[in-house]
Amino acid sequence: MLKIRKSLYLKKAGRFLSILVGLELIAVSVSMFFAPHKIAAGGATGIAILVKELLNVQMPLTLLVFNIFMWILTMIFLDKAQAAKITFGSIVLPIFLAVTPNTQVIQDALLSDIIGSILFGLGLSIIYRMGSSAGGTTVPPMILNKYFHIRNANSLFVIDGIVCLGNILVSGWEQFFLAILSVGISTIVLNYVQTGLDKKLVVYIMSENKLEEIKAKLTAQMAIGSTVFDVRGGHSNQPKEMLMLVADTQSYGSILDIIYDIDQNAFILTDSIAEVHNGSF
């Protein structure tokens, strides 16, 4: 019992530290890479950069006020569970932004934009992975989705686009295009890390009369476990068997060689998968 409690405490502590690391990565990307070059790359932090350039209001203050307003909207239009989810990040991120030096680390704006975008996407992915949120502009899409059934991704894209357009009025066209590039890079990093770095392939195989031989050879030569499904042909309406296996991308070529050595007419369907937990490959 004591060991279980200790394990739970360690897990919670690890989750808490991971969220802190994610928030600090966002703060670093904004303070050291975006803000020095006046790049407002979407989101609440982008709004904070625009306000700083227009009204000379410090970014942490703008972000805190904006996040509090979003928290209030969450309590009114969503629920307490969603509000609780964004509370920690909404408060801590402005604090981290305040204590992180607002220093220009890289003079080249393009390089600074790329590195900042990678850090920003990595920070967001860590936070989302831990089931938390930094609040900000993620709140309006949730409200729009609840009441008007507008997809979160679509409304968030529009909001980020409006913030990026603000660069034209405040800083110029160069910052606008850098902001668009930043949103793209951050999204790629976020999606890539969120869905796992160690991607696998799922392969479905059907053969008229040599499926058992294919399965046996794959097991013997590749040490790959597999699952057999009972299926039915859509045209013939006849019962068939389909073999499913999960493998590393490096093994895919060898798997195809083994299959086609046995049956040149085998039907093979392959798709990429984000993560695999447990099992053997």
Automatic annotation (TrEMBL):
Subcellular location as annotated: Cell membrane
Keywords assigned by UniProt, alphabetized: Cell membrane, Membrane, Transmembrane, Transmembrane helix
Record flagged with keyword Transmembrane: yes
Domain of life: Bacteria
Regions crossing the membrane: 16-37, 57-78, 85-103, 109-131, 152-170, 176-193
Any one Pfam family match given in the protein's UniProt record, by short name: DUF2179
Main location: membrane
GO cellular component terms, semicolon-separated: plasma membrane
Membrane topology: Multi-pass membrane protein
Domain DUF2179: start-end pairs: 225-277
InterPro entries, sorted: DUF2179 (IPR019264), N-reg_PII/ATP_PRibTrfase_C (IPR015867), UPF0750_membrane (IPR051461), YitT (IPR003740)
Protein name: DUF2179 domain-containing protein
Organism: Bombilactobacillus mellis
